[in-house]
Specification:
By secondary structure, this protein is α+β, with helices and mostly antiparallel strands. It is built from 5 helices and 10 strands; from the N terminus they run H-E-E-E-E-E-H-H-H-E-E-E-E-H-E. A hairpin with a 2-residue loop joins strand 8 and strand 9.
Length: about 200
C-alpha cells in the first residue's frame, strides 16, 4: 500500500487502523469460524455545508471491517502469527495457543497494524470521549476464542506483566487474551503461549 506523506496526512486527511481483534468460534466437530475485526477512523478537515451561520470544522467517519474465514479443524489451521496445539500429557488434555509476539510478527501485517497510525489514532481519541470509548483496545491485539466445551483454567506459560498482558475466561467456554502492542514492538517476548485446560 502506498504511504501518504505526513504533511497530507495531518493537513487534509487523517486515516488509521485501530488495532485488531480476532474472534474464533470452534464447533463440537472442531471446525469453525475465524473473524478478524479492524476498526478505522477517517478524519477530514472539511465536511458538508449545513447552512449559513455554521462554520464547518470537520468530519469524522468510523468504520468496521470484518474479514471472515472457515476452518475444518482448529489445530490444523496455520494463519500468519499464531496456531493451536492440542496434546495429552500424564492423561491431562492441554491446548496451547502459541502466538508470535516478536517485533516483526507476521500477525501485525495480517491485522494491518502500523505503529505510526496507532499513535495518531490514540492522539485523536484522547481529544474525544466518543472515539476514546470506540478505541478502548487500540493498544492491544485481542483474541476471543469460543470453545464447544468448558475450560477449567487458562494461564500464560511464562510470566507476563500483570494488567498489561491479560488472559482470562469470560465464561467457562470463552477465552480472552489481550496482547499489548508496545511490548510487541519492543520485542519483549518473541513467543507467547497460552495454556488452556479443558474440564
Amino acid at each position: 500500500m502506498k504511504r501518504i506523506p505526513q504533511t497530507i496526512l495531518f493537513c487534509l486527511l487523517f486515516c488509521a487502523c485501530a488495532g485488531g481483534n480476532i474472534k474464533i468460534k470452534i464447533n463440537s466437530d472442531l471446525s469453525g469460524d475465524l473473524v478478524i475485526y479492524q476498526k478505522k477512523i477517517t478524519k477530514k478537515q472539511k465536511g458538508i455545508f449545513l447552512g449559513s451561520g455554521l462554520k464547518d470544522t470537520g468530519e469524522v467517519e468510523i468504520t468496521l471491517k470484518e474479514r471472515s474465514y472457515q476452518f475444518g479443524n482448529y489445530t490444523q489451521m496455520l494463519p500468519p502469527g499464531f496456531r493451536f496445539i492440542q496434546f495429552t500429557e500424564d492423561q491431562t488434555l492441554e491446548i496451547q495457543l502459541a502466538i508470535d509476539t516478536s517485533k516483526n510478527s507476521p500477525l501485525l501485517q495480517t491485522l494491518e497494524i502500523n505503529r505510526e497510525e496507532i499513535g495518531s489514532i490514540l492522539s485523536e481519541a484522547k481529544l474525544r470521549d466518543d472515539l476514546l470509548r470506540f478505541n478502548t483496545l487500540v493498544e492491544f491485539i485481542q483474541f476471543e476464542v469460543h470453545f464447544p466445551f468448558p475450560i477449567a483454567k487458562v494461564k500464560f506459560l511464562d510470566p507476563r506483566t500483570a494488567g498489561e498482558w491479560t488472559v482470562r475466561l469470560d465464561n467457562p467456554n470463552k477465552l480472552i487474551v489481550n496482547l499489548p502492542l508496545h511490548s510487541v514492538w519492543a520485542g519483549e517476548h518473541a513467543l507467547t503461549v497460552v495454556q488452556i485446560y479443558p474440564e
